[in-house]
Design brief:
The protein has helices spanning about 5-15, 20-30, 40-50, 60-70, 80-85, 95-105; strands at about 1-5, 35, 75, 110-115, 125. It is an alpha/beta fold. The protein starts with a strand and ends with a strand. About 30% of the residues are buried.
């Protein structure tokens, strides 16, 4: 199964956080699953680090390198993804989450998240 991971999931998985739900840890460990990440997640980390957010302490360059080394696939953002944001209901205002939701919708890849606001959009995976 192809899975697009939300930014916080990437950070938790990379840091071996105890916050990562067991069910999700099992999905990530399952070699049958194809794990994807968006450059929007790296951008989010860069921006939120500049704001001194303590929950975004991962080094984005190192995170990207390790994700790629571990077989994760970078899902590029394209114009179709960007335009799809206009079709999303205004449930969530975070631009990083909105592009991830649009990528998930256009590519038909479940977005894996625990964010309650994001989960209000259909087709996402809750953990």
């Amino acid at each position: 199964m192809r899975l697009l991971l939300d930014t916080h999931i990437l950070i938790w998985a990379a840091g071996d956080s105890g916050r990562l739900p067991d069910r999700l840890r099992a999905l990530i460990s399952d070699e049958q699953n194809e794990l994807l990440f968006s450059p929007a997640s790296l951008w989010e980390i860069v921006i939120k680090q500049a704001q001194s957010r303590p929950d975004f302490r991962a080094d984005p360059a190192m995170l990207r390198e390790r994700l790629l080394q571990n077989g994760y696939i970078e899902l590029p953002i394209n114009g179709e993804h960007t335009l799809a944001i206009a079709e999303l209901p205004p449930i969530h205002k975070d631009p990083f989450d909105r592009i991830l939701i649009a990528q998930s919708k256009i590519e038909r890849i479940p977005l894996v998240t625990v964010d309650r606001a994001v989960l209000q959009y259909p087709g996402l995976m809750e953990f």
